[in-house]
């Protein structure tokens, strides 16, 4: 090249060699010899033409690398922590196929109807289907409607918005009624034991902020779990500060992040399902009190026939999962339909003052500290009445609230008490026409 261009362009030749080396490392070279020859015929210095060609190829290679990085970031954002079990992945063992554990299955269904119950925590030894039931109830939840491409799963009919969307609405930039919506499957988010605060609540994405020149907020796991299922396995081993942040967000229904000059607030009302093995470590009473229903998978003894049936179903599912899912498909679809209708009945379901008084008296008898037991019991009674298709709360619904929320708080986590151990609840209120008379 020096012989063709002369010694006067030696700095350019050195630059050309460096650019050719970079382009060769990033992208295969495309006929540099033909480029030099064409430049010579055109009367332009060959070094200038080759330098321009190498620079273009290097720029194209860098753009391709940026595209690959963006694609990898998008795949990572929707990775292991946010799993859509309905769209992909292995088959999930149906909740109807679980042998026994009727109290836990009922509690999960009620929480699917009314997330205000506060979630379910299941204790039990190894191999008692705790995680199986937690994942199975996710299959029963109906799809949800959200604003399109919303990372916070905002409900268009709730009137609750995240900070970014609310700022645009207040500024008049967008009309919430004109925003496009979409129907998606409810999310299933699992919180790992080693999760950090930034990953749980969200934080500023430094790399994207530097690249775009604007502060970019990366939502956390709680944002993705909104209106879906938030699953915490071995919650008794979760870091104390992390568990406090988790339960504080769930009890208030909102997540607030204040850091790096950024203030973000968004709704967070998922269905919390937690499991733990008491042999490894006990669950703090503070955590048990903040969760609505606390039950044990070891409370009810399992007969020999039940154990045999459970083993046979597990073996059949391991050999042919679709066949087992299809066998219980009718029952699963019935559960899913019941939850959909129950959510509509729940909107008009209320308790009379005499019924609330009964729950308070049962809490006093059980020695329950605080008032969360009665509050959660009221929500359980409403959900049980709605799931049964009743027009008003009955005595059976009140007893269910006492079993699931009040009795476990008065003692250790145990099986729900028998009916004869509780006082008779007040009768349901008379129909409206009789009250008018």
Short note summarizing the structure:
The chain is an alpha/beta fold and 437 residues long. Helices cover 50% and strands 11% of the residues.
Structural summary, described in words:
This protein has 437 residues and is α/β, with parallel strands linked by helices. It is built from 19 helices and twelve strands. The chain has helices at residues 2-5, 10-26, 32-41, 46-77, 102-113, 130-138, 163-170, 197-201, 206-212, 221-225, 240-252, 285-290, 304-319, 321-327, 329-346, 353-366, 372-387, 395-410, 432-436; strands at residues 82-83, 120-123, 144-147, 181-184, 188-190, 202-204, 217-219, 229-233, 254-259, 262-267, 271-276, 293-296. The strands form four sheets. The chain has a six-stranded mixed beta sheet with strand order 1-5-8-11-2-12. It has a two-stranded antiparallel ribbon with strand order 3-4. Helix 2 packs parallel to helix 4 (46-77), helix 15 (329-346) crosses helix 17 and helix 16 (353-366) packs across helix 17 (372-387). The termini are far apart. 34% of the residues are buried. Residues 1-18, 25-42, 46-51, 75-88 and 412-416 have low confidence and may be disordered.
- Straight-line distance between termini: 109 Å
Task: Give the fraction of residues assigned to helices.
Answer: 40-55%
Output the radius of gyration: 30 Å
Please tally the β strands and state the result: 12
Strand content: 5-15%
- How would you name the oligomeric state of the polypeptide chains in this document? single chain
> Pairing-aware structural class of the strands and helices?
alpha/beta
Overall morphology = globular
| Main beta sheet strand tally, sense and closure | 6 strands, mixed
């Amino acid at each position: 090249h020096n012989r063709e261009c002369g010694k006067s362009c030696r700095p350019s030749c050195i630059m050309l060699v460096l650019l050719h080396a970079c382009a060769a490392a990033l992208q295969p070279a495309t006929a540099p010899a033909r480029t030099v020859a064409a430049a010579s015929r055109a009367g332009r210095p060959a070094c200038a033409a080759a330098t321009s060609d190498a620079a273009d190829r290097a720029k194209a290679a860098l753009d391709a690398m940026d595209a690959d990085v963006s694609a990898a970031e998008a795949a990572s954002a929707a990775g292991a922590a946010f799993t859509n079990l309905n769209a992909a992945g292995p088959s999930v063992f149906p909740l109807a196929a679980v042998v026994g554990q009727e109290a836990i299955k009922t509690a999960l269904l009620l929480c699917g109807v009314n997330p205000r119950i506060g979630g379910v925590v299941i204790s039990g030894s190894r191999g008692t289907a705790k995680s199986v039931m937690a994942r199975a109830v996710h299959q029963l939840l109906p799809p949800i409607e959200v604003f399109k491409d919303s990372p916070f799963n905002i409900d268009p009919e709730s009137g609750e918005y995240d900070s970014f969307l609310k700022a645009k609405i207040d500024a008049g930039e967008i009309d919430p009624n004109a925003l496009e919506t979409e129907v998606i499957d409810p999310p299933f988010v699992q919180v790992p034991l080693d999760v950090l605060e930034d990953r749980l609540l969200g934080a500023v994405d430094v790399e994207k902020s530097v690249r775009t020149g604007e502060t970019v907020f990366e939502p956390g796991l709680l944002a993705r779990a909104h209106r879906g299922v938030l699953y915490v396995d071995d919650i008794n081993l979760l870091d104390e500060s992390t568990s406090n942040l988790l339960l504080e967000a769930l009890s208030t229904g909102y997540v607030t992040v204040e850091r790096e000059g950024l203030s973000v607030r968004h709704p967070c009302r998922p269905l919390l399902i937690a499991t733990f093995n008491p042999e490894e470590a006990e669950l703090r009473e503070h955590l048990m009190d903040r969760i609505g229903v606390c039950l044990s998978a070891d409370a009810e003894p399992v007969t020999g026939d039940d154990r045999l049936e459970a083993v046979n179903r597990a073996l059949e599912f391991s050999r042919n999962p679709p066949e087992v899912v299809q066998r219980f498909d009718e029952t699963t679809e019935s559960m899913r339909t019941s939850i959909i209708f129950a959510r509509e009945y729940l909107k008009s379901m209320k308790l009379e003052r005499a019924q609330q008084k009964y729950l308070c008296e049962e809490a006093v008898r059980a020695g329950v500290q605080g008032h969360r037991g009665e509050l959660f019991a009221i929500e359980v009674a409403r959900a049980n009445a709605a799931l049964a298709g009743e027009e008003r709360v009955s005595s059976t619904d009140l007893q269910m609230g006492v079993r699931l929320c009040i009795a476990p708080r008065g003692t250790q986590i145990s099986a729900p008490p028998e009916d004869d151990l509780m006082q008779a609840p007040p009768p349901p209120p008379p129909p409206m026409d009789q009250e008018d008379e």
